[in-house]
Request: fold
Amino acid sequence: MKLALLLFTLAASLSFAAPRPPNIVFILADDLGYTDVACFGSKYYETPNIDRLATQGLKLLNHHHCQNCTPTRAALMSGQYGARTGAYTVGGIDRFDWQSRPLRPVENVTNLPLDRDIIAKQLKAAGYATAIFGKWHNGQQGDYFPGKRGFDEAIISMGLHFDFVTTPKVDYPKGTYLADFLTDKAVDFITRHKDQPFFLYLPHFGVHAPHQAKADLIAKFKPKPAVGGHNNPTYAAMIASVDESVGRVMKTLDDLKLADNTVLIFTSDNGGVGGYNRPDGLIREPGFENKAKGKKAKAADEDGGGVTDNAPLRSGKGSLYEGGTREPFIVRWPGVTKPGSTCDVPTIHVDLYQTFLEIGAAPKPQQVLDGESLVKLFRDPAAQLQRDAIFQHFPGYLGSGPGLWRTTPVSLVQMGDWKLMEYLEDGHLELYNLRTDLSEKKNLAKEMPDKAKELHARLLAWRKAINAPMPTPNQPAAVPAEPPNKKGKGKQKQEN
Reply:
């Protein structure tokens, strides 16, 4: 009798055991523009696996990241805006000639501060196996290495697509393509951890320059007619390799019967490298042509004027117009997201941390979080978030050639369809209705002063609340003393 009662109790406890939390697979492309994916508009690039993912899940049509690599990755891992982490751009402030501008940029943080609990650490505490394979870009050495911050497994690499170097060093056959190598590691990780919840972060280096691709894929796209600014067969081949990676991950989840309990997300870190050759693609100083010293002034990115185009979005990587910050975003969560659905609620990078916390029932970190979980939108794309605005703050410069700038210091707020930008050098405002003017061609700030005032007040309040660091007036270099005249009169003492 006692044995029967014991067996009954055991069976009952098992039947009421908490279900296994969903696996999380987060795939991040590098420099992939909003319209570089077929299901987001491209008629030239081919992305059958990403497109299939979209038919099975939800597309966020109004999702934003930072204007370039490091700050986006810092926000994703920390759940904080760059105004809190200090990471707002790539590299140091002397990367571009700010000395010629009215403001001195804020010093930039290149390593994500160690007092931030990254999302992998929190998910690991909740019982998840965690791994990163790809581009980290938040500090590689010592305690900044992701393997020391919450990732059980970490292999990072960036810089080349062939003959690449990894940290830690991993040998591979000659001719291996980086995207394939990273996907191999991802598939192996999923296979080894199929019996426990896992968090896989797969941040590809593709499609970042140098633009290198597999020969067979380049050959496939060479005969294909160009469509608008989408016309580069090598770049198309790089996108195809990222798409192949997505397909291999999807197949692995299917083969292991894990797909139904896996949240799979695909997005990019910033806008595509292109759109600069349009009249409004760059900020042009008066007389910028003369600053090129007789050479044609052009965008100083990896391919001159860019390798793709983000149209109808304005500008591209490095700009805080939509072409630089709006990203393709797809999430598939069987039983939660409706196949083939879309959502146009404004969302942003800091939301992903809160989202992963909710999905994994993970503990909250020690730092304050800026985002809001998107699970509500995953369940119902028509739902409303608690917040009514998203923000960006860029207290620096991104140059693009003599007299040309991808952006100067700027802050922005987006409330629903409305987006207001405050350029910090002179304080001028730009107001756009993104529903009617996605290309940001008509500045409504003067036509609608009340709306501009309303949004500007929200932006100022947010900057104050978050203690956003501001650029300071640039101190002009000392004017050289007048040279002495031929008679030796009028000499002036020069200061050292």
Notes: The chain is about 25% helix and 15% strand. The two ends are 98 Å apart (CA to CA). The longest helix spans residues 233-255. The chain has two domains: 21-387, 409-469.
